[in-house]
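Record pair follows.
FIRST:
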Amino acid sequence: MRKVVDIEFLEIPQTDDYNGLIDMVLGECFKEENLLDSKLYISVILTNPDEIQQMNKEYRKIDKTTDVLSFPMYERDEIPHLNKEIEEPIGDIVISVERVRKQAKEYEHSFERELAYMLVHGFYHIMGYDHMEEMEKKEMRAKEDVILNRLNIIK
């Protein structure tokens, strides 16, 4: 499977511990959305609560920490029409690793399961899905569940 993600570490120690899971989860997302034959990719930035809070404040005008932020480069209806022969990002997913660890304990499941969920959730935001309205939420959750179930990432 081709590389669909560029991983960066921002103000946290760089480690290869997350690479396999990130590649697997986003690879499955790209497969599900028929993007594997393209040269498109996603940038994933792993960071700490302070950095993600600063981004949340700067870009969303919300001065608090969060678990994941997504920054799509395109609107939902533009993605199918992109030139898939050009290597370019379709968006950025920023994840607070410390927050993922905390939520995994809080929800009583593994760090891997929580990180996988953040990746899938971020991916579908980049693809133009949202969860503000109940119907949108059902559509997005169904897509997330397909990926997590297919990868057998339950606990």
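SECOND:
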Amino acid sequence: MFDIGASEIFVIGVVALIVIGPERLPRVAKTLGHLFGRLQRYVSEVKSDINREIELEELRALKATMQDAARSIEQTVNSQVNYIDSEVKQAGAEVQKQVETAVSPVTGIQLIPPAMPASEPPASSAEEATPAKSDAADMQAGKPSVNDKDKPA
């Protein structure tokens, strides 16, 4: 702060001893020490306040920068969402038109319901299985089958 060397301090001390006197010099030195300490504390407080204000300004500038970046990202995302939404709506409208054109010629066709419900088994398959079993039993017993009667011997 001050550019004072050791020889200059020695000269100031000798002058103070002559002017103030040996009785009051310790009290004056103590008072000057307290005042110098207060001055140093005041200067350090001012420095720390200035540093805090500078950091606060930097943080405010950073906050503003981040908010601008967030707004630009939000605008970009919103524009992309709006673009995609319009494309999806346009594609949906095109699909709806294609469905309407594909369905309109089919409106005059009526479907005929099936004659028999699908849950009932056909009767002919059950009847075919029964004679085969009786023919096999007749052959084992040595009886001629119905088909054998029709054949010439």
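COMMENT: Confidence is low (pLDDT under 50) at residues 125-129.
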